[in-house]
Amino acid sequence: MSQHVISVRVENRAGVLARVAGLFSARGYNIDSLAVSETELDDVSVMTIVVRGDDRIIEQVKKQLNKLIDVIKISDHSPLTSVQRELVLVKINAQPSKRPEIYQLVEIFNGKIIDISKKTLTVEVTGEPEKVDNFVELVRPYAIKELIRTGRISLSKEVL
Amino acid sequence: MKITGAEIIVESLKNEGVEYMFGYPGGVVIPIFHQLFNAPFRFILARHEQGAIHAADGYARASGKVGVVIATSGPGATNLVTGIATANMDSVPLVVFTGQVSRDMIGNDAFQEADVTGITRPISKHNYLVQDINDLARIIKEAFHIASTGRPGPVVIDVPVDISKGTAKFVYPDKVSLRGYKPVYEGHPGQIEKACKLIEEAKRPVIYSGGGVILSNASKELRAFVKKTGIPITTTLLGLGAYPESDPLSLRMIGMHGTCYANLAVHECDLLIAVGARFDDRVTGKVSEFAPGAKVIHIDIDPSSVKKNVQVEVPIIGDCKSVLQKMNEIVKAPKIGEWVERLMKMKEKNPLTYRDSDKVIKPQYVVEKIYELTKGGAVICTEVGQNQMWAAQFFDYQEPRTFISSGGLGTMGYGFPAAIGAQLARPDKRVFDIAGDGSIQMNIQELIVAVQHRLPIIIAILNNGFLGMVRQWQELFYDKRYSNTCIGFQPDFVKLAEAYGAAGIRIEKKEDVVDAIKKALSIKDRPIILDFNVDKEENVYPMVPAGKSVKEMITVELA
Questions:
Q1: What are the tens digits of pLDDT across the range A1-22?
Q2: Do B181 and A22 touch (CB under 8 A)?
Q3: Does domain A82-156 match CATH 3.40.50.720?
Q4: Distance (Å) from the C-alpha of residue B386 to the closest C-alpha of chain A?
Q5: Structurally, what CATH architecture does the domain formed by A2-77 represent?
């Protein structure tokens, strides 16, 4: 069971997300994350889907997606041939005494403090998913009040 | 000049050369029906929307053309759901119009509102909710294209009533441009060569041919392929008719109720050539023990069917017709004399059979007599269950599009409305619905449609007073607890036929079977119900129990 990042370019139309999501639930494929966004073209959206499965399942996922009329192109993105990013927002319970440690962590991870209150700090960190995972693990001991991740987005690399 | 959305629909259907439209009116489709009144094609008014869509499906399967259906919003549309799913599973080209509440009401739980695109999304090839009247003609053009190309299937167009009433300029597009939909028709030459090489080297090859061969009108090419290679051929249920079953190389049907020799041949083969078939569980049984020693060549237009259930050595994505044409040009016959001889012996030793009786009418006997008396020239529609399997087993299909049955979804109540569509498509043929006493009651209301249009469909009810296939499973696997399968409480089918203005004959003795069928064949202006009171607890054999391998097959002798 390996994780695959599948980038799906679709017609930017009502109902397309439901079609893709429905396909996954109807056929019992598990989505780890799904990010939908605009692209350089007005009429094309892109979905970055992180899915887990053996080769046979991944092949079926791709074929079934391809079968949808609104799907224009599918690519399987490996970490070597693509750049992948994710953004996390974490609201951390941070008493003033603990804040210097957290500031340090944020700095090391090239993050930003984007909101602050008497009891909490909200931090933004962007990076490869593993980096985001690491950051989350490191701040976990400070008690995370709320956390949200965008899900992975991915662009293929150009050949030099 | 601007015309209404309803007129655009009718004009578009004229452009598509539609002959028949099947359907049922209702509130939000009144504007469309207003225009259908003067349309140049015939409208067949069903008595239930499910009847309409199965009729369109039967028409499509019998003619090879696109079936066209219309129903109203809400319940009209939800009544189509079974028919859409049936067509989707068996890859039948349909264009289905549903009415929708006006755009400003959508999502408000308006009267007769249902989320039709949401409901039909997983059971259709594609669907549309028309949001702008200027898209309507393009959408209809695309729908016909999508329904009838690639792996065919039903396409639903949900039309809000204000779109039907609105106006726009009508231009029917010449072409469609769908960047996400480009089915591949030509097989890859390299793959075709590889396949032909495997065929030449094979010692024990078998062809396994499915509904795709019929859908792509590749029966002629398939016959040429068998002739050139001398390889024995078995077909799936939906593949019946692609190859003449009277031919020695025909191993008849494969699968749960297929012949012993077809199943054994596939079990022992070293090369399985799958053409337009999708390795359904009713064919394979236990997948890990299906054709265990075989390399597989799989020809299919739908890439997602390939390697879905079994591993494939040589996949060829393409249209069966075009791929077989190419193969026929280069393929050389393998040396398989011994193998063929062995299969022919196996075939001779294990024919499809049943224990006949003089005391009761055996259902298989009825099907055999229908075959003999029509000289195999009839179109046979079936319901689902035992009737369907006997119709598949005891009739030697000769031509494609003469066996019409709900294979994938297994929809009871399909056969009779489908027979209405088939009879409209093939006025030159006698059309039978081989039915059970259970299934026929699921869409019996359509009888009046056949009477109205003077369609001489012969409904042969194999009446055993049971929901026979479920009863058979209860007998074999559930300790004979016939829970709710005994339906002895029946209408009088003869009186029922008469009440509708059809003919009805009850047959209780074996010696009356032939005369009754002859009498039915002599009636040409109305449908006929033949109520055959058959052996109550007859079973369908051979049978490979679900999820088991060929070795566990139950034959007539073992039963």
A1: 789 999 999 999 989 999 999 9
A2: no
A3: no
A4: 30
A5: 2-Layer Sandwich (3.30)
